[in-house]
Amino acid sequence: MTQQRQAMEQPKIYIVLVNFNGHENTVETIESLAKQSFTNFQIVVVDNNTPASLQIIKNWAEGKQTIDFNPPKEIKEFSFPSCNKPIAYVEYEIHETGIVNILEKEKAAEEQIAPDAGNFRYPLIFIQARTDIGFAGSNNAGAKYALRKGDVDFIWLLNNDTTLHYDALSALIDQASAYAARSEKVGIIGSKLLWYRWPDKINAIGGMFNKWNTWSYHLGLKEIDTGQYDNDDVKFDYVYGASLFIRKEFLEDVGLMNDVYYAYFEEMDWEVRGALKGWKHGYSYKSIIYHKQGVTTGKEIKSKQRPLFFMCCKYRGWMLFYQLYYPYLIFAPIIRLSLKAIKNLTEGNSKESVLILKILLGKRTCSRD
Questions:
Q1: Is the Cβ–Cβ distance between 190 and 281 less than 8 Å?
Q2: Nearest alpha-carbon partner for 287 in 132, 112, 158, 125
Q3: What are the pLDDT digits (tens) for 300-334?
Q4: What 3-state DSSP class applies to 195?
Q5: Are 188 and 274 in contact (CB under 8 A)?
Q6: Domain ranges of the chain
Q7: 142, 26 in Cβ contact below 8 A?
Q8: In the chain, what is the straight-line distance between the N-terminal and C-terminal CA atoms, in Å?
Q9: Tens-place pLDDT, residues 267-276
Q10: Burial class (CB in 10 A: 0-12, 13-18, 19+), 99
């Protein structure tokens, strides 16, 4: 972050992390956030009905428990050494963020633990969902909290399996300032995502999507990063969901994520809704993030080994997305899913084929059972 911009303005950022039995990853991400060059932010951890995992994170914040992680040596400096403990926090049940006076609860909780808060009394906010509300629903809970506080400028929806370069956040703020200076209506800005395990390889620059055949892929996937995408003119169809830096005005105009998806397609849905109101997306190649990917969903696992629940969310999301925005092309996901079902059968993956058939016949819910 430039000293000139730092002196001129200090936008308030709320960073939302979703935890689902992922305390090791969540803590590593918080450790990395603690080393950001821009510090005017609060971290909102929304736990999606895994209270035992959240308790471990709270124990870590209080300095009662250590959590070990072993990043590649190339990026170890971005999460080591560990930040000072205790870290002051305040905790909510999810319903409280909408019906109680947030500031009063935070004031009442002042003596909860000894604060070491930096710019804020509570750098950490924990929100506990007692039911499974999914990735989109959990992000919405964090965004609602930030909007209710009234001092938010940007909300950063960040995956909890990421490690960040020191200037990842400041680069996003700089890019947002540049768009504003040019009067560009940019609502969501993405980062350059590199692989956590292979820090010299690209995980995603942005998402590409062909509505005619349903095909989507990550721009730059597994390419060696040589700076080939280090410019402001990179074209892609949607910001990759691991890092979504969002203007408050976009949220106020377009609304929250469509949580009907649970997981998958929520960022694409957001982009389409935003475009209908004249919003564009942007990209900051200087905002560098190292992403593990697939920790929760099993995305990097071979198809027949992936959790059926997440495959259900993905395939169901395909159908929902087209029904909402491209009903005249609904044949495209039907053909794609039918071919996938046949392929799975030939590979001995009958369970996924049966799942696809149920979705094509109108299955509307997905169960973890």
A1: yes
A2: 158
A3: 444 445 689 989 999 999 999 999 999 999 999 99
A4: strand
A5: yes
A6: 3-291, 303-360
A7: no
A8: 47
A9: 999 999 999 9
A10: exposed
Task: Give me the residues paired with residue 289 across strands.
Answer: 164, 193
Amino acid at 224: I
Burial of 147 per CB tally in 10 Å (0-12, 13-18, 19+): middle
- 314, two tokens: 């993905």
For the record, the structure tokens of 27 come out as 């803590």
Q: Which fold has domain 3-291?
A: Spore Coat Polysaccharide Biosynthesis Protein SpsA; Chain A (3.90.550)
Q: What is the pTM of this model?
A: 0.91
Confidence of residue 232 (pLDDT cuts 50, 70, 90): confident
Q: What is the dihedral of CA 218, 307, 290, 321, to 10 degrees?
A: 40
63: left (phi over 0), alpha (psi -120 to 50) or beta: left
Task: Please list the alpha-helical segments (H only) found in the chain.
Answer: 3-8, 23-33, 51-61, 96-99, 102-108, 134-149, 168-181, 248-254, 266-275, 308-325, 331-346, 350-360
